[in-house]
Amino acid sequence: MDVDVLNLDNTVDIVSQPHYDSPINRLPPELLSIVFDYTVTSNTFSHSESTSEALQLAKVCRRWRTISHFTREIWSRLTLDFEYPSCLGCHIPPDSTRGSFSFFSEGVFRSFQAHIRLSADASLAISLIGLGYHTPCAETFLSDIAREHPRTVRNHPLQQILSNAGRIQELHIDCSPDHAEVMHFMRHIQHKLIKLETLKLDSRQASINHFLNEMPDIFPDDQRYNLRKVDMTFVTGPHQYPSLFSSHFITHLDLETTPSSTLWALRSFPSLDTVHFSIITRAEEVHNLREESPWLSITHPNLRMLSFGFSDDGFWKGISLIQNTLKLPCLMHLAYTNRSMIASTFMPEGAELVQSTVDLLIRSTCESLSLSEEPSPTQRMHILSQAALRSLRISGIALGGDNLLALLEKTPSLTDLSLREPYRRIIVREETPPLFTADFFGKLRSLSFLPILRSLTLCITPDIQSIVKEFAQVLEERGTLLSSACLEIHTIFRLQGINLPTERLRKLQEKVAFRVIQVGPGYAQKTLLGYVPSMRTGGMKPEAYS
């Protein structure tokens, strides 16, 4: 059912094409309600305007309005954006403003009320942005509204949320610019959050230590029985972690940190399911970690997704050393991202990274298979084929074609692979050869073993015509490389005067859903050759664009 909804969403913009004879209007109400639920992700309200996806659907026609009103979930996803401190900063007598809070327009407030009303008894997913303004007025206002003080203006949107706090299932708070006000506010309302299962905290200034130290007071052991997931995003990481609240409730973590603090986090948070580390490091710390890593071993039984981000090729050393200490038997998704997307030189640690990744998979799989002995060279390939890893994403990294081929040959368990080349400065182009070359594809055809992929995405540089032809030849000769798959080639460069091998690729589309996409300014995408979902068969229909 999810695939059908996605296909419909790709085929027709349900807001911009409300015609009665459009395919989506032929759907029964039950399926159209599912499409609505998939489409609406957030309804945002600020002091002067609202952007409601649910309301846009309800305005299309009478039928859509009726169905949307009965789809309670689309009205329950609310984002309240306090753009200015004044949104939290004044108490104004209701009689002087006709009962409305002066910094939220009457129209915005009424629309917000309507969303709360139409969500009925559905669980609420609430996002609060800019709640951390540190002013005396804001402090007084948040304290009063949390305690339901008589002087608090009753028709402020935040008061409407607190009146329905017992229905909140997901709560996301952007704690910028000051986390202290947010924590003070949370202490007053935590007893109302009886259905809260997911808590997301995001701060661009504060250290995670401030939150972890206060969490046990905000959510005592006898009152947090429904809380299942805590997602934290912080720019500054700690050197040590409290062991109280954090040890059993934090499942998602996004943290800018050093290699040493990364190891502390993995050791201290046994419930982590998904983690992204933005690595910041120094030469002396890498040296110390290299000395200690042979004696370190950290097993994390629950981690399924591990992502590393960095802004310079040199950080690979720290990442390789981190991987050398880990055993992750449930690891299914692994990602490496160079955030600068510019490679100034060829990465000399590419081979070291490949080896550390392969060793990580072998150690982790041996852990899951309860193998205590070191596997022999002949057993390693068999063990790798049983690894839990399914998805690998490498973005903006001058890994080198030979290193990439070695990695592909030693990761037979992969089903989803995404590779994005780094942008290369003209002055150092000789030092950073393209990743996808004719030589690369020639070696790819001759590899003895390749993973059978469901999805392959290549983000490439200007020479798209030769790349497409070379890869078409690989697909023809190695037909098992992709099985009922989606292959996407993205290029950020303008393609003028390029003649793609359309007829050749059309034949490949009989077994592979293939498309070439040009990514333009603002990441706008144009399909040069590709597929669209077929409404009649549910399959993929090839389309060529000149």
Automatic annotation (TrEMBL):
Domain F-box positions: 21-78
Record-linked Pfam families: F-box-like (PF12937)
InterPro entries found in the cross-reference section: F-box-like_dom_sf (IPR036047), F-box_dom (IPR001810), LRR_dom_sf (IPR032675)
Stretches that traverse the bilayer: none
Protein name per Swiss-Prot or TrEMBL: F-box domain-containing protein
